[in-house]
From TrEMBL:
Domain of life, source organism: Bacteria
Keywords carried by this UniProt record: Dioxygenase, Iron, Metal-binding, Oxidoreductase
Reported cofactor(s): Fe(2+)
Organism annotation: Idiomarina piscisalsi
Official protein name in the record: Alpha-ketoglutarate-dependent dioxygenase AlkB
Pfam families named among the record's database cross-references: 2OG-FeII_Oxy_2
């Protein structure tokens, strides 16, 4: 079932639940080639979330800023290919929400251990904000926060469970959003972590 919380923002409950094993298997292969790492932000802080990417482009940050690259700055190699099955799942989820021509070329992999969080931010390193963002949540549940188009105010809270998919497009594409500090727990498929994939058009 689908919950719509704003003009073009949707939660597809359990949408990838039955594909979770296959998705995680493919992610393990990706992470063998481009390992998870903790980025340093332009402000100098180390991110608590561990990150990698697959697709034609990967999102990175360092002291110089946030950006997409076509090679992994750790390995010096191109980012691993986006597994076709993952790309298709993301495209089908987008279609369910009326985004017919979504073709992501970047997939950011975020791994949260207990205590990891993501502060409120906008995703604005992409060039075409008319393209939606699709995200898959796997493993431990997390509290997702979403606010307005400007900083300030108290954000809405949504619990994201294993297998949930979020689609954000149209006027909701530039909303502030983040993730609360992950609580301890154990999940049969991921152990003590939450995995989030975000599919984007760079
Ligand atoms: C709402 N990741 O990687 S995914 C990120 O759970 C990021 O790891 C979070 O925010 C995570 O940038 C949230 C859901 C999501 C992604 C992009 C959005 C929600 C969004 C862009 C605009 C509005
Ligand atoms: Fe984001």
């Amino acid at each position: 079932d689908v919950t719509r919380f704003s003009e073009r923002a949707y939660l597809l409950h359990g949408y990838v639940e039955r594909d979770a094993n296959a998705i995680l298997e493919q992610l393990r292969e990706v992470i063998k080639q481009s390992p998870l790492r903790q980025f340093v932000t332009p402000g100098g802080g180390k991110m608590s979330v561990r990150t990698s990417s697959c697709g034609d482009f990967g999102w990175i940050t360092d002291r110089k800023g946030y950006r997409y690259t076509d090679t992994d700055t750790i390995t010096g190699e191109p980012w691993p290919a986006m597994p076709a099955e993952l790309k298709e799942l993301a495209e089908t989820a987008a279609k369910e929400c009326g985004f017919e021509s979504f073709s992501p070329n970047a997939c950011l992999i975020n791994v949260y251990h207990p205590g990891a969080a993501m502060g409120l931010h906008q995703d604005k390193d992409e060039s075409d904000f008319s393209q939606p963002i699709v995200s898959f949540s796997l493993g431990l549940p997390a509290t997702f926060l979403w606010g307005g188009l400007k900083r300030g105010g108290s954000p809405h809270k949504i619990t994201l469970q294993h297998g949930d998919v979020l689609v954000w497009g149209g006027p909701d594409r530039l909303r502030y959003h983040g993730v609360k500090k992950l609580a301890d727990g154990q999940h049969p498929l991921t152990g003590n972590v939450r995995v989030n994939l975000t599919f984007r058009v760079r």
